[in-house]
Amino acid sequence: MGIEKDIQQANFRNEFQKMGINLMYTANWLNERIGRFLLQEDITQQQYNILRILRGSEVPLSTLQIRERMLDKMSDTSRIVDRLIVKELVEKSACKSDKRLVDITLSEKGLQLVNKLDQYNDQIDAILNGVTEAEAATLNQILDKLRSLPENQ
């Protein structure tokens, strides 16, 4: 099975167009599968991303700092954080060093949820087990290379 069959398109302008479409299609395919695990805990991928960012940070973060680390840079971080506050998964407080900013921290309930979601890590990894570790390393190098290219190329 190839991208041609998946999207029912036989011809592409060139291999670069095919690669771009294949990347987008595969990213959406992977997001949909990971989303199934998160749905069980009633959180979105963006919410999960923020919870993981906060768990990995040793200090409180502003919404701007969170946005810089997010996988989806187009997310409305402030609104997502507000939803996480309502769910009592994160806490907001005034930044001590700059009163214009707010600090976001992971609540105990949020930490428990992220730790609970770790139980799905093996199942999520299994989604990708169709490639070898060496192939995964090669793909990671290629993807990193693509993002490091100048934008006007």
CATH topology of the domain at 46-124: Arc Repressor Mutant, subunit A
CA-based shape: globular
Number of strands: 2
Largest sheet: 2 strands, antiparallel
Strand line-up of the largest beta sheet: 1-2
Q: Indicate the radius of gyration in whole angstroms.
A: 19 Å
Give start-end ranges of low-pLDDT stretches.
none
Mean of pLDDT: 91
**Fourth-level CATH superfamily of the domain at 46-124:** Winged helix-like DNA-binding domain superfamily/Winged helix DNA-binding domain
Helix percentage: 55-70%
CATH class bucket of the domain at 46-124: Mainly Alpha
Portion in strands:
5-15%
Through-space gap between termini: 31 Å
Question: Your description of this structure?
Answer:
By secondary structure, this protein is mainly alpha-helical. The protein has a domain at 46-124: Arc Repressor Mutant, subunit A (Orthogonal Bundle). The protein has helices at residues 3-7, 15-39, 45-56, 63-69, 77-86, 108-117, 121-127, 133-148; strands at 90-94, 102-106. A two-stranded antiparallel sheet has the order 1-2. A hairpin with a 7-residue loop joins strand 1 and strand 2 (102-106). The longest helix has 25 residues, at 15-39.
